[in-house]
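Q: I'm writing up a methods section and want to include an example of the input and output format. Could you take the sequence below and give the corresponding predicted structure tokens, formatted cleanly so I can copy it straight into the document?
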Amino acid sequence: MKETFGKFIVFEGIDGAGVETQGKLLCNYLRKQKRSVERLYYPDYEGPIGRLIHQYLHKQYEFSVDVQFLLYFADFIKNREKINQWRKKGKIVICDRFFSSTLAYQGLRGFPIKKALELARTFKLPRPDLIIYLRVSPEVSMSRKYKEKKDLDRNEADKKFLKKVGDSYEKLIKGRIFSKWAVINGERSIEKVLKDIKKIVKPKL
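A: Here is the clean output for your methods example:
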């Protein structure tokens, strides 16, 4: 009998792209389809590493790009065995951001992509089956974030930086870095975006 191996799907996008919303909706949809689903969020603000990242994002600390990379990387690595075990049990793992975020953000700030990928291989970081990129403009990003909250972090409040991060993601997509990528226009209604996500995900399961 053939062993079922669960899929690992990551949502990516600049701040305000709808990553959390669509990740949650996809999980709910798959559970209604009687699929076994687990969900992770990054940064994991409930854990000690994520709390330190939160403090950095809100300018309570200043870290070099190397320290930034290692903090985010440690946040992913701490769940490596958990992700692998879930997949071995045939579960679908849905992740709000993952290593690809760090490639985009810390890569833009100067951390070498080649070195990052070498570390991912060395530490056997789980590789997603698919990364879904929700494409939105910096203007849409900031508009959504201001509606959601007033206290924007250092990334969310910087329009020029958001534009550069979007360009950084586009390079990763073009180079098919770290996984297969699917691009969706995230500026439409939540329902239309979800419909496209379902079309992309169904054949992969």
